């Protein structure tokens, strides 16, 4: 149990009754504004004024003063007493007679209106009639009857009788419904039609029937087995019953608490969960009542008030007991106590936060996280619990008054590493969750720095993502932290993120050089990639040496894989780079290849340089003894490709070296470049005996040149085949024939015929000759067709021309230029095909009519 | 807890002391089984069924609360009459005690006979046959058209093993507050707190087709 929801405060310590006789006892009372009325056992009605004062320290005290008293003569106890302030009357039930007294002087009213043989009565707080100067009451009589009355200043007007199966021991009324306790059961009566609904049975000998109106159309009844049972006027229950103690004498209700009194205790139950919340020892209680939201309780001689402890205090007390759910439940209901919406929200959020920290202390992380989120907590409050996790430069002071009493998680975990890790894990997931949401708004830096620190400790693989994607991490203490945890790659990334490229590179070089690398570091390749897109070229040069010394081929990528959009810079001019790369033979080749083949730079220097380097490579391979043939082939084909593709290098230079080493294939290409085709083809045919290559040579070298050039090349090839001076020319007859019959080769037939040895038979040449004749015929015919078509076109043009010239144009004074609208002064003018006539200088474009903008096709006017 | 929201259906569970009424409800509402203290007076649970609120009232089985049970039965739309399958006395008292209590309920109140603790039942020692249970359930529901029901309102359940518990309640709700297949699906999803994207997209497609 328990909340402390109420505090017992003395209201009138010793009732100074009229007579000081020992038997004078309080029987009943009512409070109405500042007036308190007490009915005694010896037939006095006493009037006090009572005022509630709140001390500066929050304590409530009461100041009372006796106003007067009245003795009602009948010597019977005052059974019931109610004030009706609207009428300035009090209703008094004494000796089974209900009478009215003046509220101030306690004198009986003049008319002497009364109701006799009344056992009890009650006021209808939810009257059917709306006259403010009347009060509706329900009266239970000794007979099996209840009656409804309207009470005015001086009259008691009988409204209706309702007969019951039994005498009513207690009544309650709400609207048109009367709830009555009979000796064996409770029932509800609809006073409009006297319809009677049983509720449930009781044994009135054992249990005092109590009917307490709780809210509109809802009553609270004392039931069997000391249960408090809720019943609506429809005769059903909408709340579960609550367990009271035995021997109850009275019940009161102040939202959200039900108070019940027996001889020894006043117990407080919540209407929200029906559980008992507080028990206040109180011996010999006689009356307990709620009067306009205030609760007074009387023993036989003294009167106390039960002062509600402010919600906040109750909630704080619950929180102090770590009863989070109850506190939140109570807080949720606190807005029914007349707080403004804003104030309530503020209060509620604060309570949620406190609750969250309590859950946090108990390692109920799920609940804590939910509460933190719901309450919109300042994340720094949480982060600040983790030593060193907040950025150093941030001056954060926890909220005052404090939300919790936690020093830090070291205190919470009592240095248990496992627990500590759990706390850190919580912060990590929590921050990840809120990152980018409203909750983190404005605290991006704090959140990201905290995450960085946590990742550095336990989840280095997540650092990269955190740092690279829109991070709020600053350099301040992150650097130190990352260093300490050896997350060097992340540190590099962080530097990069903050454009501190120099420092970033310094970190990465350190990392690449070190023996115990960071597993998240992708290696040298990463640095190269970074350098290749680095725009600060000065800085780049600082690290190039280091990279190239580590790995030439990788390093050269810094130069070859630069972003396409990068502006040219003095520091990265190809000459500079080539000069620099001199020391690194493989790198320089790669770079030159890049310049020549990819950038397609047409500079003799690079081409020659690359060719020479290739050549040198080949030569080196040739000198080496144990070199594989494939390797040499690859090198040579690379060289050949280069020689063939480019025509910018210095041929003579290469040729000299190639000749020296008998590199025939290369020589052939080089001769080709020098247009010394005869020599080239001779090499191909005689030295290499590669006839296919020879043919190919003719095609390649005539590519893009006039048709005659190709014929000439093939002719040269043919003459090489047929060269009578070559000693083994017999072997060349077959390739010569093949060439003649080849579909790709082109020849000037006449020249071929002159060249062919006379000894060859026609049969041998039949195929070639047929083809030659046919193509010659074909040419002749095509040419004729072309000629005729040209003539036809010519005729057409002539016709158009004549048509255009046929119309006469009359030029006179009235004729004005269609453009400038002035007269013609000199004899020359312009006429457009559509008849528009202008000055010569006004005709800007002879294909476009200046007036209509019509376009005359250039072809037709030509 | 909050009885202020007007419930659309009131379901009450009755039965002898310690037959497992509270356990049955707890299994359905909280989805877990735990040992229960004897219920004092009555207890109350609120359950969402599609767009409806259903109030589930748990009563105390102890005989001294009989008078109250009568009161709490008022305006119930459905009643679960629970008995312990291992204890024939509890079955008999359904006839003897609770038949009359239910007079306070709605006239068309659906009465479901539920045997509990089926997990403890050894088939060879069975004292109450399924047929007896079914017969009782049919007899109790003479006032309503039993043909509308998918089968006799008789179930054998185990709160411990979560057997047939969900079925009992859905059987009642579906009879008293019928949901369309669609609503039912949504209700299931709500419970699982899953959003069925497929379902929505299908609807969207249909709409589009109409437009064209």
Automatic annotation (TrEMBL), chain A:
UniProt keyword terms in alphabetical order: Cytoplasm, Protein transport, Receptor, Transport
Classification via SUPFAM superfamilies: WD40 repeat-like
Gene: LOC101853578
Domain CNH: 23-295
Pfam families: CNH (PF00780), Vps39_1 (PF10366), zf-Vps39_C (PF10367)
Keyword Cytoplasm carried by entry: yes
CHCR repeats: 562-726
Main localization category: cytoplasm
Protein name: Transforming growth factor-beta receptor-associated protein 1
Annotated localization: Cytoplasm
Natural source organism: Aplysia californica
TrEMBL record, chain B:
Family membership noted in the UniProt record: Belongs to the small GTPase superfamily. Rab family.
Highest rank taxon of the organism: Eukaryota
Family matches, as InterPro entries: P-loop_NTPase, Small_GTP-bd, Small_GTPase
UniProt keyword Nucleotide-binding, yes or no: yes
Protein name per the record: Ras-related protein Rab-20
Keywords: Nucleotide-binding
Pfam families (UniProt xref): Ras
PANTHER family cross-referenced by the UniProt entry: PTHR47978
